[in-house]
Specification:
- By secondary structure, the chain is α/β, with parallel strands linked by helices.
- The chain has two domains: about 190 residues, Glycogen Phosphorylase B (Rossmann fold, 3-Layer(aba) Sandwich); about 180 residues, Glycogen Phosphorylase B (Rossmann fold, 3-Layer(aba) Sandwich).
- It is about 40% helix and about 15% strand.
- It contains 14 helices and 14 strands.
- Helix 8 links the parallel strand 9 and strand 10.
- Helix 2 packs across helix 3.
- The longest helix is centred in the last third of the chain and has 19 residues.
- It is elongated.
């Protein structure tokens, strides 16, 4: 098949959608498909062997969002002139290019799949208006999303239409922890004088990701425990960094909470392999690719019950899913003071999560493409 992956975003911008598009393209190309990315981000015409058509035109300053007619005109020309068998549109929270692509495919009856990567909670009225204006709920476009949580939030846009669940993919073997880093419980771990329990979080430092609440929960969890009982490393960057630094100083946690900044995948993998527990405080998490990467690395995961990560995590088995921040703090503390519980979760997390490796997922994407093509013929 000749496949176009269309999105507002792509490498060199780094985020969940960007990296998933890259990995999906490579997985499809490895299966013999002709894949091209069409995106609204400036950069090189090829990324890791993937041809990229970058739409020309100015963007909204400070945000990089397409707002001018020329960008959308170039998008229409790229889709119409590419001879594609199917167009796979990747949709985030604010995605004018993706929505324009869906509307164009609907009007011109082009085979298309639209994958929603964000939880559109609180967007009910805008989604209702989008459907009223452009007929999403009666469109020929096939709609998918990455989790059951994200699917529930899409209902105002697609009404009673079926929504396929296509989870994010991963190379399980690449993330797997080598035996040399297998977890142990040395005497005194988490106790005064012993090595700390190592917590890690990988997240963008934005309000939506709730890193402030993560640090506050960690501070509550270690309150009253011997100094050095636990350490939290947060990987990622964003406009919340200054606020986090102030919270850390105010709580006297400069030695216990490390802001590691943005790191490449190889460095993140190395940090995961040397950690004990992965923790994430975001509630509006459509999937939780960072949590999946941690699970693939053999770490138990602490996160919120509202997260889409609940689709691949098992509460009380390989993860603890907290209903609120108080419960999250209690879960963090339990991982410090109860090594038997921590190691039981870790032992369960050693088994890879099913259905998320690209070897299993790529055929499911192909099935969606074939269904989109059949709907038009």
């Amino acid at each position: 098949m000749k496949i176009a992956l269309v999105s507002d975003w792509f490498v060199p911008r780094v985020g969940g959608i960007e990296m998933q598009m890259r990995d999906l393209a490579l997985a499809l190309m490895a299966r013999g498909h002709d894949v091209r990315v069409i995106c609204g981000v400036p950069g090189e015409p090829e990324v890791d062997g993937i041809p990229v058509e970058r739409l020309p035109g100015p963007r909204l300053p400070g945000f990089g969002i397409a707002v001018t007619p020329g960008v959308f005109r170039a998008l229409r020309q790229a889709m119409a002139g590419g001879g594609y068998d199917v167009i796979h549109i990747q949709v985030g929270n604010v995605a004018p290019i993706a929505h324009h692509a869906m509307q164009y495919c609907t009007r011109h009856r082009l085979p298309a799949v639209a994958s929603f990567h964000s939880v559109l909670k609180y967007y009910d009225v805008p989604l209702w208006f989008l459907d009223a204006m452009h007929g999403y709920s009666t469109s020929t476009v096939r709609f998918t999303t990455v989790s059951t949580v994200a699917a529930e939030a899409m209902r105002p846009l697609v009404k009673a239409r079926d929504i396929g669940i296509l989870p994010n993919g991963i190379d399980l073997d690449w993330w797997k922890r080598p035996e040399v880093f297998a977890p142990t419980s040395p005497p005194g771990r988490g106790e005064e004088g012993g090595p700390p329990v190592e917590f890690i979080s990988v997240t963008r430092l934005q309000k939506r990701k709730r890193a402030r609440w993560l640090v506050k929960a960690f501070a509550e969890a270690v309150s009253g425990l011997p100094p050095g009982s636990a350490r939290l490393t947060i990987v990622g960057d964003g406009d919340e960094r200054g606020a986090l630094e102030r919270i850390i100083r105010g709580a006297g946690l400069e030695q216990s909470v490390i802001l590691a900044g943005r790191q490449p995948r190889e460095a993140i993998r190395a940090l995961l392999h040397r950690s004990d527990v992965f923790v994430l405080a975001s509630k509006l998490e459509s999937f939780g690719i960072a949590a999946l990467e941690a699970r693939a690395a053999g770490l138990p995961v602490l996160t919120m019950a509202q997260s889409g990560a609940r689709d691949f995590l098992n509460h009380g088995v390989d993860a603890l899913l907290a209903e609120d921040d108080t419960a999250l703090a209690a879960d963090i503390r339990a991982m410090i003071i109860d090594p038997a519980k921590r190691l039981a979760l870790t032992a369960a997390a050693a088994a890879p999560p099913p259905g998320v490796d690209w070897v299993e997922l790529a055929p499911r994407y192909e099935a969606e493409y074939r269904a989109a093509m059949a709907a038009i013929s």
